Amino acid sequence: MKAYAEDPVLLRNLGKPEVRTVAGYRAAGGYRALEQALRMQPDEVIEAVKASGLRGRGGAGFPTGMKWGFVPKDAEVQKYLVVNADESEPGTFKDRVLMEHDPHQLIEGSAICCWAVGATVCYIYVRGEYVAPADIVEEAIGDAYREGVLGESVLGSGFRLDMLVHRGAGAYICGEETGLLESLEGKRGQPRVKPPFPALVGAFGKPTVINNVETLACVPHIIERGAEWFKGIGTDERNTGPKLYAVSGHVERPGTYELPIGVTFQELLDACGGVWQGRDLKAFIPGGASAPVLTAADRDVRMDFDSLAKAGSMLGSAAVMVLDETTSMLQVAKRVAKFFNHESCGQCTPCREGTHWLELILQQGTHGIGSHREMDLVGAVCKQIGGNSLCALGDAAAMGVGPIVAKFRDEILAEIAAARPAGHASPLPVLQASH
Amino acid sequence: MPTVLIDDRTVDVAQGTNLVDAALGIGIQIPHYCYHPRLSVVGQCRMCLVQVEGMPKLQAGCSTQVMKDGMVVRTDTPEVKDAQRAMMEFLLINHPLDCPICDQAGECGLQDYAFKHGVAFSRFHFEDKRTYSGRERIPLGPNVVLNMNRCIQCTRCVRFTQEVSKTGELGFLQRGARAEIGVFPGKELDSDLASNVVDICPVGALTSSRFRFAERVWYLDKKPSLCTGCDVGCNITLEHRRTSIKRYKPRFNPEVNDYWMCDYGRATHERYTRLPRLAVPRLRKEGALSPVSWEEALGALHDRLRTRSSDGAQVFLGSGFSTTEEAYLLAKLADQGGSPHRSVWTARSQPFHIPNLHGGVTGEDASPNRRGAELAGLVPGDGAIDGQRLLAGEGAQDAALLVVADSDFGPPAHDPEVLQRLRKAAFLVVFGWADTPLAQAADLALPVATHAEKDGTFVNVQHRLQRFKRAFPSPGEAMPLTDVLTELLARSAPEWQGLGVAEVFDRMAEEVPAFAGMRFSRIPPTGAPLRGATAEDGRQ
Amino acid sequence: MSEPVAEGRRGLPPEAREELHRLRPLYPTARALTLPALHLAQRAWGGWLPEEAILAVAEELQLPAAEVYGVVTFYDLFHEQPVGRHRIRVCTNVPCMLRGSAEVMATLGELLGVEEGEVTADGRCSFVHFECLGACEHAPMMMVDDTYHYDLDRETVRSIVEGLE
Predict the structure, then answer these.
(1) Interface ipTM > 0.90
(2) CB contact under 8 A, C69 and B171
């Protein structure tokens, strides 16, 4: 583990309301990176981001510089930056904190990205529920226009950039980048078939970069302090930079924690004051509801992209849900299944039908009906969804539900048995038809 | 053209061809529901998952395009078959399995694929399937009924109204497992093209209110034919049971109607049951109509045809429903009597527009073949008594003989005033399949075949010559009109004796420039354009 | 907030149309204004979207009504049924579930005397459970109209509900 920079980076302006204005943000050192970037060639900016090793903070962990590099250089073609602020992965709230506390950091990072890829319009797609954060960002954008940070000539450079907030209306799937684009275009947020990828055919059919809020918030710091500095933080060169961990559930102090990427779960847990009420850890979900659950035995895993993948889970959005020893894993599994069933867009067969089926099986379990056969069936249904769905939501449902049942099977069976109404020794056997 | 290897067989396809189409080119069927060649690719149903070398996951065949040489695809691996079984299981867990009362049974994508790719048992152990209460059998419009319980959410219908008919009546509503299709409350799916959604619905969710419960589809005999509703000339499959036509369905012709036809056209076969059939030849004797033999009927007509022109004109009125061959023979009959009084009459049509990849075809006439009949020679000479004069004025009173083909040539055939005018002819002959007021007013009424009962050609609004085939024989004593006319012609000129439709066409092609070089047997399945043809070509 | 009118169908109110005209140049297509327009319409129609509101948006943007209807039914924040003057959404996803969202739901049921999804007789409130609202560090939490309320227990829920007009 390489040493972490002394002070918080992304959260440096936490609790300083004055940075919500351009003047206040400048006073805190802001917009120097944008000035610097505008003096660089766009390609140099992309190279710097590539060199930093920054990977997308939204969930998939795709190298950001590479994504920017995919956008065609043709100056004639309209290009867009779409900021994915549709933060909806259960357990995730870091982007809300970034928008509420430091909107100009996002605007600055977005503006640098636009300069680098040649985008002249930036839509910030904020989930509809985030009314206050969207208002704060919108106000900051207004100030940025007034102060010459946005509009006709960004900081007097002659680069024209328009930026606006686009509010969602309540749909998890709009966090999937092509679902988001559909929604931005005024349609149902149903993910598109890929290819073509958004870098070539994105918003309104034009080349588009879609980046998460936290990803863009990292960018000014990479420009200002250099790629080497950024790379110096984290586990290794594939897992670099400061990272926001959104910790929730059974901990003493839930919250947004900025730590070097690759901190161990135990270190993170310690930073949060440990499991609440002095209880023991049963399990934790390291990267939002889509991430396979890990057990207390995995507590020393490094919280970075590759280490978590190796441990059979994923960093995802780094939304860490901590489950203490009293947690009903049947209830957690059912709730996660219910979530994905509710949020499935309904267009593709495995996700629409599979998530529905998963919820039914687990709901039935809470009524005391279920045996090894149902547990096997959960695994089978997850396997049938995984890899076959149109977008990653199906995979997410399979990864979110399957491992809970797989890893806590006996415990869940005991819960089902305990929930069985008195007088019912076991559920009636269902006759299996012969082939 | 890039080469792709599918299940060890190579096929060359145009760049950008998707794998479903590429495989079909070499006879490999990749199962699919949501994909349709004329609709946007959405990759939703996930039935067409195949293995593509170098890709970690299965890929949807519909959305995977062949872009360069060397793609290696497998459609038959255990992984692919597992995925197909999985999708079938997912699609069926909430399906009502009400095949015994479902119109789609027998032509259902779920039945077919369940048989081919599915499993025979269910692991879905719940009493209640997902249902859409109150949405089991609701009319979406005058011609289409929705049963949401059967829907597999492929959205073909929605995309059809958005992308093909461009009317947008249908929407994809709700989300997830509650996703459904429907119209906006109070609005209807009522465009001219509405019923095409029934055809493209792979399951029994959308059924035709006309065809509902009319027949089990496995009892239907299906024959290629043409719609007679207007002069677009939609290619159709005529589906009948024991000569009772149950429905028309569009038959693919990329040059004309593509995959589509209009709702009006679909209903036009109903005329064959709405009107009574003319069953036997009928001759007016001493004021009263009596059934007579064909021999006697043709004898009477032949006698009339031989009367001298000084006794009055011989007038021949064909219609847009006449085949090109019939019109040609009728013109020949006029030639024999040296009569310039020959014409075609047809009503104007509502301009039904059928989209295709070239922009589409819009109809003009309310009958299929005005152009063909004119090209074949039914064009009046100068100052001749034509259809316009006959129907609107006093033309018939100068006629010693008026021959009308056919008895249901359009709305005027049912108009008492028109009948009075036509009746002024000294001798009125009506050919027809229908026993209309016109047939009843005739001195000689001759029962002939419907278009379902004969062979022939039509020339559509694009001047495209299209051939259709007899679907079933005529009932009773009705005969194809071409047989009747060749027989009549042969009584004066024996070389016409026994000529079939093909020979009549070929003879016409030798004579009429518009058809030069054509042979009946070589008319392509999608028809043949008549380049630069106009009605003038039919003027003798 | 405009009152529903008894007769005739209303279009979008002028201020909503003005806002849409302001936004129009910022997007390459009119269709992109669907979500903004529906948000404006929902505000104008008292928190939900009756058929006339959906038709008004469809007409304003020149889109088929069925398509706009499809959009409305896709998103959780758009309502096709009447809602209370105050709309309470309780997060019940895993982090809030772990910290007592069930009690929040139960408390609201007791306080308001209606089932989830129903509107109180006086039209004041309706409450529903909701998927993750993205404030898990403050679980359990809920959203009342546009405002987040954090770190709830029976007492805070009671005082929030009692404070609603």
Answers:
(1) yes
(2) yes
